[in-house]
Amino acid sequence: MKNGKLDTLRPEDAVLENGTDVHVMDLQRDANRQISDLKFKLAKSEQEITALEQNVIRLESQVSRYKSAAENAEKIEDELKAEKRKLQRELRSALDKTEELEVSNGHLVKRLEKMKANRSALLSQQ
């Protein structure tokens, strides 16, 4: 009997070995599937990173353009403010000059009326 046991494999041992092999193969398949899934996710993530990096580059150049445009607009605004102040000074000066000329004209009109009155008086005396 001892020789019979040693020489023959029990069917339970074969099932156990085959079951272990099937279990190992299932684990290997699961591991391969997980690796494939992770490789796919990695490739997808790398594509997303590339797209995001390109988006960052595009947005940085857009920010640069907007910053440049804002600086130019501020420069133009400062120039326009200076021009406005200059024109307001010129306007005040022109208004002051106009007022002076109107006052002077008023005095001249009064003098002219006095001269006419004096002339009329002189002519009426003669």
Short description:
By secondary structure, this protein is mostly helical. The chain contains two helices and no strands. GO terms for molecular function: DNA-binding transcription factor activity, RNA polymerase II-specific; RNA polymerase II cis-regulatory region sequence-specific DNA binding.
Attribute tags:
single chain, 126 residues, mainly alpha, 96% helix, 0% strand, LRRFIP1/2, DNA-binding transcription factor activity, RNA polymerase II-specific, coiled coil, RNA polymerase II cis-regulatory region sequence-specific DNA binding, Leucine-rich repeat flightless-interacting protein 2
Textual characterization of the structure:
With 126 residues, the protein is mostly helical. It has a domain at 21-96. The chain contains two helices and no strands. The termini are far apart. The model is unreliable at 1-16 (pLDDT under 50). Pfam families: LRRFIP. Belongs to the LRRFIP family. This is Leucine-rich repeat flightless-interacting protein 2. Residues 28-104 form a coiled coil.
Number of separate helices? 2
Tell me roughly what share of residues is in helical segments.
Answer: over 70%
Mean pLDDT: 88
Radius of gyration: 53 Å
N→C terminal distance? 181 Å
Task: Tell me the overall shape.
Answer: rod-shaped
H-E string: HH
Largest sheet: none
Give the secondary structure arrangement, pairings included:
Blueprint: H1 2-7, H2 11-125
Family: Belongs to the LRRFIP family.
Keywords: Coiled coil
Organism: Myotis davidii
